[in-house]
Amino acid sequence: MSTAPATDGRVLVAFAGLPGVGKSTLAGRVGAALGAPVLPVDPVERALARYGLVGDVPGMAAYAAVAGLAEVQLGLGLSVVVDAVNPVASARGLWHDLAERTGVPLRMIEVHCGDEAEHRRRVEARLPAEPDPFTPTWEQTLTRRAGYQPIIGPRLVVDTTVDLDPLPAILSYLR
């Protein structure tokens, strides 16, 4: 992984964490602060599903599609923020490979919600009136947690239940 800042200031920021922990909110705030595009994986997965591409392979295909879009943006001289669960090493490996290939530093940010009751409340508050296979229930979130592989290597861990705004610490980490 490239750890030194790119001489032009570009950075690849990859968020990771279970649904409902606050990744998308933080990714959006970081993207706005950096003037960087935020590339979420979830809408790509939904688009693939609309065309009948479902299961494990389309999930990785969505990550690969976002990685391709991120590479284009990095090539344009922009920093990029990736918003994804990134539950397994193979998904996170895409960002390591992209950073290495483009000579841009990778900054992983793992987001947690340290209060399980609050995490459950957040997940359940997101559930639509009509069932949506892409909006996970609490039970599905627990299943994903069971399969979530630990992140090995440098990263910033953010607990969104701590009563401090994490944005200053995140931006400091990205420098």
UniProtKB/TrEMBL annotation:
Gene3D superfamilies: P-loop containing nucleotide triphosphate hydrolases. InterPro entries: P-loop_NTPase (IPR027417). The keyword Transferase applies. GO terms for molecular function: kinase activity. Keywords: Kinase, Transferase. It holds the Pfam family AAA_33. This is Predicted kinase. It comes from Micromonospora coxensis.
